[in-house]
Amino acid sequence: xKNKFFEYLEKVTHGGIQSTIMLAFSAISIALMLxxxxxxxxxxxxxxxxxxxxxxxxxMEQTGESxxxxxxxxxxxxxxxxxxxxxxxDISGETQDxxxxxxxxYEANKESLRSIALYNHYGSLIAAxxxxxxxxxxxxxxxxxxMRAMEEMENMHFSTPHxxxxxxxxxxxxxxxxxxSRMVELTNxxxxxxxxxxxxxxxxxxxxxxxxxxxxxxxxxxxxxxSSGEIIxxxxxxxxxxxxxxxxNRIEAAYKDGIYDEIFDGASRTVIVNTVSYTGWKLVGVLxxxxxxxxxxxxxxxxxxxxxxxxxxxxxxxRIVSVRxxxxxxxxxxxxxxxxxxxxxxxxxxxxxEIRHLGYSIQKSYEKIExxxxxxxxxxxxxxxxxxxxxQSQINPHFLYNALDSITWMIEGERNDEAVYMVTQxxxxxxxxxxxxxxxxxxxxxxxxxxxxxNIQKVRCKDSFSVLxxxxxxxxxxxxxxxxxxxxxxxxxxxxxxGMDDGEITIIGKMDGxxxxxxxxxxxxxxxxxxxxxxxxxxxxxxxHGSGVGLVNVNRRIQLLFxxxxxxxxxxxxxxxxxxSIRLPAIPFTEENRxxxxxxxxxxxxxxxxxxxxxxxDEE
Length: 620
Fold this sequence. Notes:
By secondary structure, this protein is α+β, with helices and mostly antiparallel strands. The protein folds into five domains: 2-70 and 296-338; 87-205, Beta-Lactamase (2-Layer Sandwich), CATH 3.30.450; 214-295, PAS domain (Beta-Lactamase), CATH 3.30.450.20; 352-390; 394-589, Heat Shock Protein 90. Helix content is 53%, strand content 19%. Strands 1, 2, 3, 4, 5 and 6 form a six-stranded antiparallel β-sheet that branches.
C-alpha cells in the first residue's frame, strides 16, 4: 500500500512540474501579449489623437488667418475713410466732399461692405454711404458701439453680429453685419471736435468661412465668440438661442490659447482655443472624446485578432518546450536528492546543453565550495585594497610641475637659498607622501605633510597668504588616512584665498568627544550653498586648478577605511570663508592597529574597536 502511494505521488509530482512550466510559460506569454497589445493600442491611440489635434490646430490657424484678413480689411476701410475723407475736410461746409469720398470707398468694397456712417459726438448723422434715410430717432448715443468708441478713444471696437438697424431699406431686407466703431477727430469751422466712424461689414463672409470648417460628420465642431463669451457664430446657434442646447462659451472664452481637456454636460472632450488678432475673439474647436474612440475601432479589432492567433501558437509551443525541459530536470532532481541523503551517485546529466551543463556544475560544486569561499574572502579584501590604492594614486603631477617650475625660476634669478629651501621641502613632501607604501599613518605625520605642502605653496605664491596652526597635541598619536589634508589645502588656496591680500588659512586639530576632528578654515570668498552641497556628491566635476583629487576622493577614502559615519563636512558662507572638517575615529596609532586596518577594512576596524572596548573594561 505504501509503495503504491509513493508511485502515485511521483506521477502527480512529475505531471505537476510539466504542467507548471507550461502554465507559467503560457501565462507569461499571454500577459506579454496583453501588455504588448495594450501598449500598441495606447501608442496608436496617442498618435491618432495627436494627429487629429495637430490637424485641427492647423485648420484653426488657417481659419484664424482668414478671419484676420477679414478684420484687416475692415481696419483698412476704416483708416481710408478717416485719413482720406474725414481729416481732409471741414464738416461745416465740405460735407458733400466727405460724402463723395465715402461713396468712392463704398463702391470699391461694396461686395463685403454694407455701410459707412459718420456721427458727431451728439449722435447726429453727418454723412453715410450708401445714401439712405436714417430711421426715426435711433438714439445712437445709447448704442454699445457708440458708447465704447467714446469711452475708449484710442481703440477700434468690433461688435458681435447683429441686424443693421440704423437706416431704412426700401427693399425691406435685413442684413447681418459686424460693426467696427472708432472715435475720430472732426474739423468744424476750424475747431476740432470728436465724432464716431461706423463701418458695417457683411457677416456672411464670416458665416461662410465658419460653415466651411464645420462641414464634418465626426462630431467635432468650431464656434466663434468674443472675449466675454458672447457667441459670434455657432453651428447650432438656433438651438442655443431657443434654449434647446448649451455651450461652455463663458468659461472657454477665458481660456488662453492652447489645448484643454474638460467635461461638459457629463461628456469628456478636448477644446482648442485660438485668439483672433485685433478683436480678442476666440476661435474654439471642440473635439468630443467619442470621435477619438471611433477612429480606433478597426485598429482594436486587428489587435485582438492578432493577439488571439499569437496566444494559440504560444500555447502549442509552450507545451512542447515544457515537456523537453521537465523530463531531464526531474531526473536531475532525483539524483541531487540522493546525493543530499548521503549517497554519492553520479549526478544525472542529460537533456539540452544547458541542463547537462547544470548537472555537471552541481557535481563539481560540492567539491569546490570550501575553496571558493576562501577565494571569495581573499578577493573581497584584495578588491577593497585595490580600490583604495586607485583612489590614492589619482594625484595629478600638476603640483610637482608647478613646484619644479618655481625652483627653475628661482635658480635663474640666482635665489639659491630659496631654491635650496624649496627642494628640501619638496623632497620632504614626497618622502612623507610615500610613507613606505602605507595607507594608514599617524595624525602627526599627516600634519607634517600638510605643513610641508603649505611651506612650498607659500614660496610659490610669494607669501600672499598666512598659515596658522591650532593643533591639540593629544590628536597626533591617532590613526589617519594618508593625503587627506593636502587636497583640502589646495582647494583653500585655489578657490578660497587666491587673489586676496589678507588671505589666512588655519589648520585645526582637536578631539571631539571620542572622535578626532581635523579642519581647514579659510577667510576666502566662500561657496554658495547649492555649490557646497555638490562638492561631496558630484564626482564628475571639472577641476580648474589643483591636483584633481577632489573632496569626493578624500571623503570616499576615509569611509572605505572607517565607515560611513566618518568623512568630510563642509561649512561655507559667501564672503565669509569656508571650513572643511574631517572626522576620524580615535584609534591609537600602533603597528598592530595599522596592520589590522590595512589588511581588511571592515573586519579590521571592528576588531580594533572590540580590542579598545576590552582594554577600557580592564582599566575599570
